[in-house]
Write a structure and sequence with these properties.
This protein has a domain at 4-83 and 116-152 and 174-180: Vaccinia Virus protein VP39 (Rossmann fold). Helix content is 22%, strand content 26%. The protein has four helices and nine strands, in the order E-E-E-E-H-E-H-H-H-E-E-E-E. Strands 3-2-1-4-5-9-6 form a seven-stranded mixed sheet. Strands 7-8 form a two-stranded antiparallel ribbon.
Amino acid sequence: MDIKLNLGCFNKKIYGFQNLDIRPEVNPDIIDDAFTLTTIKNNTISLIYSSHMMEHKNRKDGLNAFNRFYEVLIDRGELYLSVPDLERVFEHYIFFKDLRKLQCFLYGSQNYQEDYHLNGWDFKTIKEDLESVGFKNIKKFNRWEIDWLAGIDDYSAAYLEPEFNRKEGHLMSLNIRCQKK
């Protein structure tokens, strides 16, 4: 059976996925902690997608979550992650000197208890963290080339200058794809 998880789905449900969130009020398919996946059995998931969720945990808990994702994935299962790209955030600040536009990427929206950022990556550091738990074939992906993301307006498509403009804007999201074994 081909089971796909959309972690921390909020109101961004993906058709064909089991949409998982800790908050019952967002009506997910599965109510569970997306970092520990206590209701998910090992070696049962073919694909995991997580958009702008991992930065909401500290480094230790984030590494534990990467390890848990590895455990629940089947062999050759895929993990798709989107997180704020701190390299792009710092470049943007150096060029535009506008911290206000970057606060959400750095600190989270802070609209509810879990909506604070506690960690961050550039490509080098996320690759090292993913490799440390066993992931292979770690690469950036173009979210516009992923069929199942068509019509999903999430932070994997976060652009600035000009905002929300994928043709002229700067992508502020680090979109990573990797594989178990």
